[in-house]
Amino acid sequence: MGSDLALKTGTAFDVKVQPSVEKRERVTAAEWERTGQWRITRNADGPVTYTIEEHPVYWRTQMAWKVTNARAVPVEVDVVQDGLDNGWHDTRVSAESLPGRQVSLDSRTWRVKVPARGAVTLTATIDTRY
User: Please, what sign has the CA dihedral across residues 70, 71, 73, 78?
Assistant: First the structure.
């Protein structure tokens, strides 16, 4: 998707994140409306209503982040995905394996608990207009 991924590593050379796009597909306007309950809004007033004069193209991207821990103790890693909004103000997270927190229109964060000498795969489905 051409977005940024940030991981504060400090001296954590033994904790790694490997992001990957699992699937990217075109979404119909009807499917886009069905997932409207996941709409990210600009303010507490709710979503803004627009009149659609032409049907834009929508995309669904399934992402996965494999977080590994080579340490002998469990760790918590904040995985941050930036570049979500791209100015359209209607990006949606329609599914995720762990509850995330929307930091801004453009950024979402997940706290991932990784067992000692283990790995966890975080997944999210992100619906966008680009």
Answer: negative
pTM above 0.90, yes or no: no
* Nearest CA-CA partner of 128 in 74, 57, 72: 57
Q: What is the 3-state secondary structure (H, E, C) of the chain?
A: CCCCEECCCCCCCCEEEEEEEEEEEEECHHHHHHHHHHECCCCCCCCCCCCCCCCCCEEEEEEEEEEEECCCCCEEEEEEEECCCCCCCCCEEEEECCCCEEEECCEEEEEEEECCCEEEEEEEEEEECC
pLDDT tens for each residue of 72-123 = 999 999 999 988 887 777 788 989 999 999 998 889 999 999 999 999 999 9
Contacts 24+ apart (CB under 8 A), 28-36: 28/58, 29/55, 29/56, 29/58, 31/58, 31/60, 32/58, 32/127, 35/92, 35/94, 35/127, 36/92
Spatial distance between the Cα atoms of 64 and 120, rounded to a whole number of angstroms? 10
